[in-house]
Each structure stands twice: as C-alpha cells, then as structure tokens.
Amino acid sequence: MEGIFPPLLANQQRKNHSIGQLAANIVMSFEIISTLHVLIDFLISWWKAPDLAKWLNHWNIIETEIKEWIGFDIANILPARHTTYKFQCYLAIFYVIMPALIFGTLLVSWEFNISYPIYCVMLIVHAYASMVCYCAEDAKAIIMFKCLVEGFGKIYAHLETNPQALDARKLEHILTKIRSQAYYCGTHMAFQQLLLILATIYFAAGSLFATVTILSGPVGDTKDELTMIAVVSISAIQTMARLYFKIRVAVGITREESRVSDMIKKRELGDQRVAVDLRNVHDMLTNNPTEISLSDFVKLNNDLILGVFQQIFTQFIVLMQFHKIKEG
Questions:
Q1: For residue 57, what pLDDT is reported?
Q2: Residue 299, SS3?
C-alpha cells in the first residue's frame, strides 16, 4: 500500500512528540470508538427496524384518534404540523449538517496530505459521512420525543379552547396510549442511548484532559497543537450540547403532560358532570408522570445531566492523576 497512504507511524510519532503520547492516544481513540459506535448503532437500528415501524404505526393511529376526538379542528392541527416540520428542518441543519461540516473539516485539515490523493478522498468521505451517521441516528430519537410533546400539546390546546363537556373516558384512553408510546420509545432505544451516554462521557472527559494537557505546555508552536485544541474543544462542546438538547426535548414531554394535568384540574372543578372521571385522569398523570426511561437503567431528565457532568470530571481527575504519575 506504499504510495497510497502516508506513513502513519511517522505521523503518530510526530504528534506524540508535539502534544504528548497519552493525550494523542486518547484523541486518536475517538475516531476508532466513534466508528465502532456508528457501526453498532446502525446494526441495532437494522435489527430493530420492525419495532420502529410498529411504533410509528401505533403513533399514526393515536394521531387519528386525537383528530377525531377534537373534531379535526384545523386551527389546532395545522400550527402543530408546521411546528413539527420546522423543528425537523432546524434539527437537520443545526444538529446533523452543521456539526458534520465543522468537525469533518477540522479532521480533514488535520490529516490532509495532497501528496496522497487517494488517501485524501477516503479521508474526506470518512470524516463527513461518519459524522453525519453519528448525528442522524441520534436525531431520530429526538424526533420521536418531539412527536410525544406535540401529542400532549394538541390535547392541551383542545382542553384550553373547547369549553364544551368532555368525553373523559376518551381523553383517558388517548393519554394512556401516548404514555404507552413514551414507554416503548425508551425501551426501543435503550441500548443505543446508553451507549451514546457512555461515549459522551468518554469523549468529553478525554477532550477536557487533552485540552488541559496541551494548554499546560507551550502552545502554538506547531499546526498539530492548534488543530488538536480545536478538535478536542469542539468535540467536548458538541457531545455535551447534543446530550443536553436531547434531554431537554425529553423533559418537554413531562412538562407538556404537566400542563395537560393542570388544565384537567381546572376542568374538573368547573364541570361536575365528569368530575370523578377527570379526577381519575388527573391522578394518573400526577402520581406517575411520563418520563423517557431507558429500560429502567436511567431516565432522560435533568438529574442525568448532573450525573454525566459528575462522571466526566471524575474521569478527568483520574486521567490527570495518571498523567502526573507517568510524567513523574
């Protein structure tokens, strides 16, 4: 393969000399781990494709029941459609395309060597395609969460704008189905999301360690140092921002359900004919609020954000201690 690929051993030794062997090895492992993660992610997605199709079919049935229950109210349905469409467009641009362009460009500029054109083409394809795949699969989970948020939102809008008597049993039936979809959503993507959380902790901790290691020495002497700082900094910010945004969307499900619960409480006090049935629905929502639970291992809520930060800094401290022992 001589003449197609650059001498990787020489490049690795050059980087180890300029940024430190431990930091270089950790950053270089990001590419291997992320590639394996993408492959595992898509393998699991292919294996669970029938379950995803079943979830989507059930959700279409629920949306039809919601439309029938609210009487195909155009004033309530169309804005939700437009909101979902805009959300998907923004998600594709800012969650998938832009991070892939920014991070892929940094990776290409780091390894690009015009003396090896075939290698450069393979590098460009790998840098951009792997990043798009890495973000696209996670975007699928966010869109599923957003569907649940919109489902509760339509019910809230109908309760708020419709002063007529409610069919409380039908309301309970629809809410139970939406809550069931949230449960199956967490079960369906549990393994993939758990892997992503572990990868996020490793990438963020490793990126923070590499950044501190580089900044602790003379900075700016080589292109490798500058590129390394940019790569690891953006990697840490991006992984944490993606996890935070996903958790915020998941928390939005609980928040929208809480709004529905509050509105049902108001209707319960004002409509004595269905007060008992509405009270049962209200108790169901308040006593066991809907959360995305990854097969009961962890819940996507605000506590998870704090837990992830704690794990990141714990690993960072361990790496710093190991670095000091090795340097000493």
A1: 92
A2: strand
Q: What pLDDT is recorded for position 230?
A: 76
Contact indicator for 50, 260 with CB cutoff of 8 Å = no
What is the torsion angle, in degrees rounded to the nearest 10, for the CA atoms of residue 104, residue 105, residue 107 and residue 113? 130
Question: What single DSSP character describes residue 165?
Answer: P
Q: Residue 72: what residue type?
A: F
Q: Virtual CA dihedral for 56, 239, 197, 225, nearest 10 degrees? A: 150
Is 85 a residue whose pLDDT tops 70? yes
Q: What is the mean pLDDT of the chain?
A: 79
Contact between residue 214 and residue 23 where contact means Cβ atoms under 8 Å apart: yes
Query: Over 50: is that where the pLDDT of 307 sits?
Result: yes
What local confidence, expressed as pLDDT, does residue 82 receive?
Answer: 45
Q: Which of 221, 215, 209, 218 is nearest to 324 (CA)?
A: 209
Query: DSSP 3-state assignment of 80?
Result: helix
Widest pairwise Cα distance in the chain: 83
Backbone angles phi, psi at 69, to 5 degrees: -70, -40
